[in-house]
Design a protein that fits this description.
single chain; five-stranded antiparallel sheet; four-stranded mixed sheet
Length: 233
């Protein structure tokens, strides 16, 4: 029997909160409800009120995320000859437009003070799915590999440098030889990534990772940052 799969789509610059598919549903009905929210009303808060406009996108409404090209972390390019060569928080390009540094972490504020990098990470809330039937898996999905390379997805919106708990769980990978991706995929399909371990507390206890604060919250808070503007590849 094929294992059942939920797939949540993240398309272009808009986080869509309405797509769920399964190859093994009961009478065409998903065995556990799927609820994903982003800041569709653009008031700076992600809550149940964002469900109203989640199926549309206009100049006034619809979820967006920023391309994280500033340098809140106060960090410097590792190949820089002087401190004046500050690198961006997410990705750095050379004069030929090629990626020569990619950062898979949310940076802490610079020691001298200043804004936090976490403020540049858009929030995606996905409701926990403790009622999933055994064998069901949950994935995040994009329409193309180009769209996957244009983002980083984080399991939580907090700064840190631990590769096991703080690194991006998906996206990017523009120069994997020089800057290896910290995430691994269980299959050859680069356009999706399994996130069951961050949504189902009743899954395998050796793989489940609690990211909620408080731990009894109904929603898990993921983060997304952009790496490229529209038209870039």
């Amino acid at each position: 029997m094929k294992k059942s799969i939920y797939k949540v789509a993240i398309l272009g610059a808009v986080v869509l909160a309405s797509l769920a598919t399964s190859d093994h549903a009961f009478n065409g009905i998903l065995p556990s409800p799927l609820e994903i929210l982003a800041d569709t009303n653009r008031n700076g808060i992600v809550d149940i009120n964002d469900a109203i406009l989640k199926n549309s996108w206009t100049s006034q409404s619809g979820a967006i995320y920023t391309v994280n090209y500033d340098a809140d972390g106060g960090l410097y390019h590792p190949n820089a000859s002087s401190p004046a060569n500050k690198r961006s928080d997410a990705i750095t390009f050379d004069d030929d437009g090629k990626v020569d540094f990619e950062d898979y972490y949310i940076n802490a504020p610079a020691a001298s003070g200043g804004p936090a990098d976490v403020d540049d990470i858009a929030m995606i809330k996905i409701k926990g799915m403790p009622g999933l039937e055994p064998g069901f898996r949950v994935y995040l999905k994009v329409a193309s590999e180009v769209e996957m390379r244009a983002i980083h997805i984080f399991r939580k919106r907090s700064a840190g440098t631990n590769p096991l708990t703080d690194a991006a769980i998906w996206g990017g990978g523009h120069n994997p030889t020089a800057f290896p991706t910290p995430w691994t995929d269980g299959d050859s399909e680069v356009k999706d990534i399994e996130v069951t371990r961050w949504l189902n507390p009743n899954t395998n206890t050796t793989t489940y990772e609690e990211t909620r604060s408080p731990a009894n919250s109904a929603y898990y808070e993921f983060g997304i940052e952009g790496l490229s503007l529209a038209g870039m590849k």
